[in-house]
Structure formats: C-alpha cells, structure tokens
Amino acid sequence: MPEVTPVNEIFWEGTALGELRVRRCRACEHRFRFVSSWCPACWSDDLDWVRASGRGKVSAMTVVHMAPYESVAQRVPYVLALIELEEGLVMMSNVVDVPCEQVVIGMPVEVTFEPRDGLQLPQFRPLAD
User: Fold this and answer.
1) Can you give the three-state secondary structure of 68-98, one letter per residue?
2) What is the 3-state secondary structure (H, E, C) of 36-75?
C-alpha cells in the first residue's frame, strides 16, 4: 500500500471523495503527478491541486500472471497499465472490470476507486458508452 505523506496527502483526500487530483504549476500550467514539490517543467514551487477528468487511454500494458506480493496473489492475472490522462500526464494503475485479453493499447478508460486498507485506490475501467 502507498504511504500517505505531506507531499501526497491532498491526492489521497481527493480519492476518498471520488476525485482524481493532480498537481498543477501556477507558473507554466504544467500538470503532473504528486511525486515532487516543484514543477518538473519549469522548476517553480508555485503549485496547486486540480481535479482531473479521470478519463484517458491505455498507452502501455502488461498482464501480471505471478503476484509480486502475497497480498495480491488472489488478483492474478491482472492488467498493469500506463494510463495517459486527458490532461497529458501518465500514471500507472490497473485496468479492471474487463477480461485481461480485452485490454488493448489505445483503449479509452475512466477512473474508478477501489477501497483497500483504508485508502481509495484509483483504478481504471473501460470508458462507459
């Protein structure tokens, strides 16, 4: 499970509310994940948080057949994917609610949240028509 820290706390507060939040640089408008306290595009520390659309597409993926941890052994096989969000940033997550063999590069997806160990983990499912 991810660790909640001062850098990512607002992200996890958002997931608890069903919101996918990303960092935004006020200086250059670049959007990125919460891994840094400064903008990776212009190095500004004038940052805030914005709600992302939660929509994107699968840009890379693999099917995991051997669980890396005992805690996820009952989930195999599962899809681990890079999701390119409409806002331009990429995040790693799982694609759920669809058989693994139906997940393809370019598949439109939307965020959903899975309760796990006190957090709401962002996962992605095929975009509803």
Assistant:
1) CCHHHHHHCCEEEEEEEECCCCEEEEEECCC
2) CCCCCCCCCCCEEEEECCCEEEEEEEEEECCCCCHHHHHH
Of 10, 7, 13, 32, the residue nearest 120 (C-alpha): 13
Q: CB neighbours of 105 closer than 8 A, spacing ≥ 6?
A: 58, 59, 60, 61
Q: The tokens of 83 are what?
A: 């999701």
Residue for token pair 């994940």: 33
* pLDDT in single tens digits along all 129 residues of the chain: 778 888 899 999 999 999 999 999 999 999 998 778 899 999 999 999 999 999 999 999 999 999 998 888 999 999 999 999 999 999 999 999 999 999 999 999 999 999 988 899 999 999 986
